[in-house]
Amino acid sequence: MLTYNFFQTLSPKSLKTALVYFICEADLPLSITKSTAFGALLELCNPAVTNILVHRASLTAHLTNVYFYHQESIHHYLLSNEIDVSFTTDSSTSPNITSYLAVTAHYIDTDFKLISIIIGLTEIKGKPFVPFIVSSNKGSHLSPFRQPFRCITGNTIYECASLI
């Protein structure tokens, strides 16, 4: 679905973008960047990487930017194909107490592979909690799909670390 033409030369931004695509496509946690073996692999591929610091916190911010860059093409892709889509939510809190709530679309493609695509991402401000979401199209990330969604979560973000 997406083409990977994110770098011609190694730079901090191109490395972050390549890592974001890799982590998302392989469904890996951002904490993989803490791994000594992962750092050694990057350095083996290109010794100049040792001068470019890649941390989970900086990748989290860059991941949000990459998602918003592709958000419209993801919505168009899901709407243009006649597929049955299921929706789930997931929430997380970063160490700086920034909370995020994501809406993910899931479907099975023609090769019978389960595909999961994040279609909505919002920052939850204030104390870390996940509000109850009721059936509504108004102001929702799902309004282009003309389908209401219902999500009932726990009272705190810590109670619903993963709802998928």
TrEMBL record:
It is found in: Nucleus. InterPro entries: ZnF_BED_domain_contain (IPR052035). GO terms for cellular component: nucleus. GO terms for molecular function: zinc ion binding. Keywords: Metal-binding, Nucleus, Zinc, Zinc-finger. The keyword Nucleus applies. This is Uncharacterized protein.
